[in-house]
Amino acid sequence: MKTKFSRLLMLLIAFVVHTSFAQEKTITGTVSAEGLPLPGVNILIKGTTSGTQTDFDGNYSIQASPGQILVFTYIGMTTMEMEVGEGNSINVSMTEDAQALDEVIIVGYGTQSKRKLTDNVAKLTSDDISEIPTPGLQNSLSGKAAGVQVTQTNGKVEGGINIRIRGVASIGAGAEPLYVLDGVPLINDNESSTDAPTNPLITLSSNEIESIDILKDASASAIYGSRGANGVVLITTKKGKQGKGTFALNMSHGISRPTNKREWLNADEYIELFTEAAINTYGQEEGTARAEGMFDDLSSGTDWRNREVSTDWQDLALQNGYVTDADLSLSGGNEKTNYFFSGAYHDTKGIIRGNEMERVTARVNLTHQLSDKFRTGANISFSRTEIDRIANDNAFVTPMQAIAQSPLSPAFLDNGDPNPSTLYSNFLLQDKHAFFNTVIRRVTGRAFGEYQFLPFLKFNSDFGYDLYYQTEDSYTGRLAPFQSTNGEAFVSSLGTESYVFSNYLTFTKNIADIHDIEVVAGMEYNNSNRRFESVTGIEFPSDDFQSISSAAEITGGGGERSRNTFLSYFARATYSLHDKYLFKASIRRDGSSRFGKDKQFGTFSSLSAGWILSEENFLAGFDALSFLKLRASWGQTGNANIGNYAWWSLYEAISYNQRPGISPIQAENPFLTWEKVEQYDIGLEYGFWNNRISGEIDYYVKDSDGLILENPLPMTSGRDFITRNVGLIQNKGVEFVLNTRNIVKDDFTWNTSINLSKNKNEVKELPDDGADIITGENIIREGKPLNAFYLIEYAGVDPDNGDALFYTNTTNPDGSLSKETTTNPNEANRIVTGQPFADWIGGLTNTILYKGIDFSFTFQGEWGASIYNAGGVYQSANGDYWDNQSRDQLRRWQQPGDITDVPQARLFGSNGVTQSTRYLQEADFIRLRNLTLGYTLPESAIEKIGLSKLRVYFTGFNVLTITGYDGYDPEARSDAGSTAAGRGIDFYSAPAASTYSIGFNINF
């Protein structure tokens, strides 16, 4: 009987267990907030310890039974409870907790809630960067993030972009941040074969970008170790979301014009000034004869006396351009698979004659939940960018140097051909008989797998790839300037590919609703290979044959291969206690082939902490206070932006009497290692009145030690230089961010965001006992800003005789500088005056939504920088040579007693035209960077035609500039040479483009 009872009991237990398991099923879904997926949401079955988390795309999967309650919790969001019913899918839209500041921040190898973040990270969404009509993605960041300065070298469509995060941290190594696209470090090397740099990231299209997170302090960027010294820019592309498929189409077209044009002398003014200049030098009779003889030559047979010609060369060099953008995307998903497909077309006709760009891009992003534990996916994109380029700013054939031509010279002959008999070579001949074309093809991709071993432990394996393939083709015909052969062609081919393999574990655990712990640990391997080849040929049958195969003689060729590798181990741990005491630590061990065999590995670490004071009881009585967090961080990062073989003993191939040989060029330095940046940051985040007012205040100190410089060696060494770690630079500053929700109503909202930052740059130590490093008009000196201007000081004009005066600046016995004046610039000493980098940068953005109308604008400003117009000795030289002059030279000194800053006009008189502070000006400006006005039609008006959204808009870029700078543009810098832009030099540099577009957005 007992045995039967036992058997019956076992059968009953088995039935109950079976029934229980039979009821349990897989529940899947997506958790979002304001339409965006929320990664890292904790999901628990109420009353149990069983749970999971949402993945990067906000998806989750959990085993539960009907009737059980799923509890969704996320810092900064209101906790939600959902009962399991008959269905297998539960989607949740979480709402913001009015008592918390929060948004999802992308950090290295994961995400984090901003509320619990102990780092300084600036986040921009697709709304911040979309619909801005500019070829370069980086331009759309201007004025949007505190401490982040974005400057395009000049107005060329492909012009190089300089981004500085908290100042310039290097002298000899690169100063650009590390760009990471969906976890893949991007190739960001300027590969232009001319002096003029190109923007390597011009291949990216803003339509595919979901968000950009800028890691500013060392605690945030230390997880990237040896490449995080200049900050890290994390770019995340769009992904599909669970739900009905959505088709989106965006199109716009706009016109562009130069932001500024300068005033130059017309024919009347030119004749007046240069006749006077010649008479002042040679006397009335001879001077008049010399001037008229030159006018005869310049006018090319036209009647200059009757002003038959008054050519506006500026209008020939600059033109109105256009910008066309079109993109479409298809996205959606279900509980298993999410997808995003996009394609985009961009076409720009630049504001400089002969400068154009066309780009096509395509992207596919897929994720798939293979099982409850295993998720996989892939991202891949392709772009093709074709650029019609012009010469660099220091070339006579560049359009901008046409302003030096005399207005007496006709631009074209009677038959329509460009006039070859001008003062300088006519750029129109280059425009007609030559071309320089660059095509960049780029493929980026990432494949990944994620396995959830346990609810609190997952493993990620990622493989990323970036291919940058560039071809250059140029042909200079026999009628082009400076061409002494029957045509010359140049072709080059460059391919750089980089692949990165990452594996890491993520441990996430909440203990007793008090302790939150996350640990990420893994390794990464990065390999990059570069190959370059070029060929030059001359003597072509005619200009109809322009390929290199038609050259009768190959006169030059070159090629090189190089590679570098990184091997890294990293770990990061975050811990929060009671959701108000926050701690973080990270470490990365990097090995790189770029550094000496004895210094190939370096360790970079960081520590940070935060305290959410608003959660403390002693502040409970402050009803106006919504959020208050104090945070502090310390960290070390490195700079590896140098050549692949800087530490090697290098030789170059040479030939002598057609015999091959080798010659040493670089000395070996096995101890060469990373530049190390150590940074301290303390910050305060605040929110008042349910976060109607919020913001941040930060103070930082950033020391760059072991700067990498090429030190010249004596000729007796047999080598030109050795690369060494020497010197120290310090950047320190403050940042302010203020966000206000001025009006919050159902049909009317108005938000304002203001950022302002100050940075002080100072050179602390230099090699060779602090010896100055002087390059042209710039100096690197201890105790001064990097690349400060070093010039003799202009003292104005002697009112008695029109002589230009300079301060001697000799040292007095008491150590002060003498302000005696001299007319001889060789008797004047140079002084440090002005700097190329701004002290203050800021931005102001307003966004207004009223019913279906949206209106936004961003002002950007910079203050404290100087700009040196190196072309001023030709352009504004009071008639020293025959170059056309800026119109301000008409206020030259003419008679005793005249008070003016322009010396007497003297042809070939060198009266005040030496390089001096006469051509140094403040570069302060405020610019209305972008403005957008749009209208979205009501759903009731468009649903009948199958649309879910129809919006039309107008947008402007570089709409207005307020500045005291007399040149073309306070942001423009010379692109002639690799360092000119960083030295604050303006030399015939084109202004930026001002663009106005209209467009529409359609969603199905």
UniProtKB/TrEMBL annotation:
<protein>
    <submittedName>
        <fullName>TonB-dependent receptor</fullName>
    </submittedName>
</protein>
<dbReference type="InterPro" id="IPR023996">
    <property type="entry name" value="TonB-dep_OMP_SusC/RagA"/>
</dbReference>
<keyword id="KW-0812">Transmembrane</keyword>
<dbReference type="Pfam" id="PF07715">
    <property type="entry name" value="Plug"/>
</dbReference>
<dbReference type="InterPro" id="IPR023997">
    <property type="entry name" value="TonB-dep_OMP_SusC/RagA_CS"/>
</dbReference>
<keyword id="KW-1134">Transmembrane beta strand</keyword>
<keyword id="KW-0472">Membrane</keyword>
<dbReference type="InterPro" id="IPR037066">
    <property type="entry name" value="Plug_dom_sf"/>
</dbReference>
<keyword id="KW-0998">Cell outer membrane</keyword>
<comment type="similarity">
    <text>Belongs to the TonB-dependent receptor family.</text>
</comment>
<feature type="signal peptide">
    <location>
        <begin position="1"/>
        <end position="22"/>
    </location>
</feature>
<dbReference type="Pfam" id="PF13715">
    <property type="entry name" value="CarbopepD_reg_2"/>
</dbReference>
<keyword id="KW-0732">Signal</keyword>
<dbReference type="GO" id="GO:0009279">
    <property type="term" value="C:cell outer membrane"/>
</dbReference>
<dbReference type="InterPro" id="IPR039426">
    <property type="entry name" value="TonB-dep_rcpt-like"/>
</dbReference>
<keyword id="KW-0813">Transport</keyword>
<keyword id="KW-0675">Receptor</keyword>
<dbReference type="InterPro" id="IPR012910">
    <property type="entry name" value="Plug_dom"/>
</dbReference>
<dbReference type="InterPro" id="IPR008969">
    <property type="entry name" value="CarboxyPept-like_regulatory"/>
</dbReference>
<feature type="domain" description="TonB-dependent receptor plug">
    <location>
        <begin position="114"/>
        <end position="232"/>
    </location>
</feature>
<dbReference type="InterPro" id="IPR036942">
    <property type="entry name" value="Beta-barrel_TonB_sf"/>
</dbReference>
